[in-house]
Specification:
This is Inositol-phosphate phosphatase. InterPro entries: Inositol_monoP_metal-BS (IPR020583), Inositol_monophosphatase-like (IPR000760). It is a single chain. With about 270 residues, the chain is α+β, with helices and mostly antiparallel strands. The chain folds into 2 domains: about 130 residues, Fructose-1,6-Bisphosphatase, Chain A, domain 1; about 120 residues, 3-Layer(aba) Sandwich (D-Maltodextrin-Binding Protein, domain 2). The chain is built from 7 helices and 15 strands. It has an 8-stranded mixed β-sheet, with helices on both faces. Helix 1 packs antiparallel against helix 2 and helix 5 packs parallel to helix 6.
Length: about 270
């Protein structure tokens, strides 16, 4: 079954919705998480993608950031982030994306990311490679982390300031081992890894809808995608873990090993 055609056409239409709202929305803070905001566009895009999935694949499960879980007891689950980088979107910053991923059992099988402002659509399916607007992409061939731009997403934990201070200390060690740090707070950074522009990308405060579509694209572009400490991401029982965090570290294989040395060394020193 050709999932890429469906993902591509769905993201093309979703991008039109995003561009229609871009620069014209108001945002509210989600009551359950002060780091998360919501706009009319999130709801409109989510509703559109969910409707497309349910029309084309009515027996599949769905996880949508805003709508929640639709459990049809299927081995296939579509995972949707209507706008990744909503804070950027709400302020008129163009670094945002739309993520649509497909899990088969408990592994990413296909996915796509749209960067509407840049008119880019990234696609990947297991064993078929990764593409941006139809052109094959691959991760960086650089073998020294010190030569790389690296993306890192970090959120403040006002409820536990020491957690943020500890992460900031680790981030300092990472910065000392790279060329420069970048942080869009969105899937834009992940697509820069897939295209070979960034050497790596990390984030610890992410949910399942942030990672499934991203993971398959980077892996099919030749990258490694693990949890923050280098182990395979555990998607087991994911329909009942809707609110769990899925922290990750992703990079080309040789750069991933270098990052993991820094991460584990710093954690050991703490």
């Amino acid at each position: 079954m050709d999932y890429l055609k469906f993902i591509s056409s769905t993201l093309e239409e979703a991008s039109k919705i995003a561009n229609k709202y871009y620069g014209k929305v108001t945002s509210t803070v989600k009551p359950e998480d002060s780091n998360q905001v919501l706009t009319e566009a999130d709801l409109a895009i989510g509703k559109f993608i969910v409707s497309r999935v349910r029309e084309k694949y009515p027996k599949h499960n769905v996880i949508d950031e805003e709508a929640g879980v639709i459990d049809n007891n299927s081995e296939y689950t579509w995972v949707i982030d209507p706008i990744d980088g909503t804070s950027n979107f709400a302020k008129g910053v163009p670094l945002f994306g739309i993520i649509l991923g497909l899990l088969y059992k408990d592994q990413p099988f296909a996915g796509g990311v749209a960067l509407p402002f840049f008119s880019e659509i990234y696609l990947a399916e297991k064993g078929r490679g990764a593409f941006c607007n139809g052109e094959t992409i691959q991760v960086s061939r650089e073998d020294k982390l010190i030569n790389c731009l690296v993306g890192y997403g970090i959120d403040g934990h006002q409820e536990n300031p020491e957690l943020t201070r500890k992460e900031a200390k680790l981030l300092g060690e990472i910065v000392l081992n790279i060329r420069n740090l970048r942080s869009s707070g969105s899937v834009f950074d992940g697509m820069m890894v897939a295209k070979g522009k960034f050497g790596a990308y990390h984030h610890r405060n992410t949910n399942i809808w942030d990672v499934v579509g991203l993971q398959i694209i980077i892996e099919e572009a030749g990258g490694v995608f693990t949890d923050f400490y280098g182990s395979p991401i555990d998607y087991s029982n994911y329909l009942k873990r809707f609110n769990d965090h899925y922290p990750f570290c992703t990079a080309p294989p040789i750069l991933h090993k270098q990052l993991q040395k820094t991460i584990h060394r710093e954690e050991k020193n703490d």
